[in-house]
Amino acid sequence: MIQVVNRALDILEYVSVEPLKPKLLGHIAKDLHLNPATCANIVKTLVNRGYLEKSDIQKGYLLGKQLTHIGSDKHSYQTMISVADPEMKYITKQLNEKCLIAVLKADKRLVIHKNSCDQMVQANTPDEKKAYDSSSGRLLVAMLSDEALENFIHKYKLPSASIWPDADTLKKFMAQIKLIRKNGYALIEDSVQVIGVAAPIYQKGILIASLSIYLPAFRFTNTTRKKMIQLSVASAERISEKLS
User: Fold this and answer.
1) Distance in angstroms (rounded) separating the CA atoms of residues 167 and 128
2) What dihedral do alpha carbons 67, 68, 69, 75 form, nearest 10°?
3) N or C: which end of the chain has fewer CB within 10 A?
4) Do the Cβ atoms of 197 and 228 come closer than 8 Å?
């Protein structure tokens, strides 16, 4: 066995366990029982080759573009998907509307799992979308730590008024962030096309994804609004409990 190759693979596997949580160099070395200098050299090589990359939002390393298929596809989240799927089916049975699970990648929210419903007219949303332009994306941004949120704003700026009219200034943006954090969910209800509500999914106290319910705007009522919020928050909490 070639020792340096084995160590490099150990590092990649370590980083991929929680693909949305940046891993600090010191933690990698300590947890894998590696000499700090040796670990730093291997990580540097992996970064240069694109297998690791520095996080844009928090300090630490994430899987790089060369391993995007490991870090962002369904296989990486199979445990979460298997736990979430029954909850999503339950929601659809109660509301007959669609659900999705999404994660934050750079300034976009990526759908990693979704289901359908029996409605003749169903809401549709792209698998990749600007985070500010979706309830799941806004939720994932709002639930970042204060430091990570500050870095996110610095990197990707504030949303435009056309995408998020109530958050196009720093004061308004932070008011929206505080509201989402206080409520424990994000709701977009002023759209003329698709209405969505999203709640956070945690694994051992770490935010890893969001659960969202969405429907065509013409089917959105006050009664539906209440059910969407209750179902999304309760289901996300049950998923989080099972993952912890």
Assistant:
1) 21
2) 100
3) N
4) yes
Q: Tell me the β-bridge partners of 103.
A: 110
Q: What is the pLDDT of residues 154-166, one digit of tens each?
A: 889 999 999 999 9
Residue 212, phi-psi category: left (phi > 0), alpha (psi -120 to 50), beta (remainder): beta
The full set of domains in the chain, from first to last, is 3-71 (1.10.10.10), 74-243 (3.30.450.40)
Please indicate, yes or no, whether the overall pTM of this predicted structure exceeds 0.70.
yes
Q: What is the spatial distance between Cα 4 and Cα 6, in angstroms, rounded to a whole number?
A: 5
200: tokens are 């956070």
Cα–Cα distance, 5 to 143 (Å, whole number)? 37
